[in-house]
Amino acid sequence: MIQLVKASRSYGTPPVMALDSVSLNIGQGEFLAITGASGSGKSTLLNLLGGLDHPTSGQVIVDGIHLEHADDQTLTQYRRLKLGIVFQFFNLLPSMTVVENVELPLLLRGDPSSGVRQSALSMLDQVGMTRRAMHFPHQLSGGEMQRAAIARGLVHTPSLLLADEPTGNLDSENASQVLDVIAKIASLRTTTVIMVTHSDSVAALADRRIRMRDGRITPDAT
């Protein structure tokens, strides 16, 4: 599903290596956790996989697409059709209801408007958010906002879900509910899930864990 071949990303002059010659294979349907301290390269790696940044050198191949050579149009289609992203701070649009937020990926993909609402409601039901569908983000708890964000990230059935510290802004009870949803998604084996986290206990839920330090995967990866 995913192959990185000596992927590096540097910034500034003189260059600072945020990601240093990383090679990694990730299988279809795998649930991978990435841990490491701040500045270890976790977010840079996620940005490369999301097509939000290009490697300075090396290859980043996702589902047969060479992201290192992709132009803006290809990257836009990649993000609309194959990618779901869940952020630490939810990034729901405040002027839209929950169901309208979840509908967005389908509308951007060009789905017929007649079926979009039902698809969004079905996805909200899967994350236990049906009763909050017509609420606005400011009316939700943190855990509810994150579950709505997960529904938005999955409604278009992406082949890859990237979760960047999805529980980092939640209390323990809400974090547990969100992790239950992610674990359920991962267990279906239809979507590859890559989750960045600072927590070893959260990472333990994944099929495989890699630890990063100074832009590299460390030997204690499991």
Structural write-up:
The chain is α/β, with parallel strands linked by helices and 222 residues long. Helix content is 35%, strand content 26%. The protein has helices spanning 42-49, 72-81, 98-109, 113-126, 142-154, 172-187, 200-203; strands spanning 2-11, 16-26, 31-36, 57-62, 65-66, 83-86, 160-164, 192-196, 208-213, 216-217. The strands form 2 sheets. Strands 6-7-8-3-9-10 form a 6-stranded mixed β-sheet. Strands 2-1-4-5 form a 4-stranded antiparallel β-sheet, covered by helices on one side. Helix 6 links the parallel strand 7 and strand 8 (192-196). Helix 5 (142-154) packs parallel to helix 6. It is globular, with a radius of gyration of 17 Å.
N-to-C CA distance: 19 Å
Mean pLDDT across residues: 90
Beta-strand proportion? 25-35%
Q: Give the class from helix and strand content and strand pairing.
A: alpha/beta
Q: What's the tally of helices?
A: 7
User: Helix and strand succession?
Assistant: EEEHEEHEHHHEHEHEE
Numbering strands along the chain, what is their spatial order in the largest sheet? 6-7-8-3-9-10
- Helix proportion of residues, in percent? 25-40%
Low-pLDDT windows of residues: none
Q: What is Rg?
A: 17 Å
Which outline best applies? globular
Got a strand count? 10
For the sheet with most strands, the description reads: 6 strands, mixed
Main traits of this protein?
222 residues; alpha/beta; six-stranded mixed beta sheet; four-stranded antiparallel beta sheet; 10 strands; globular
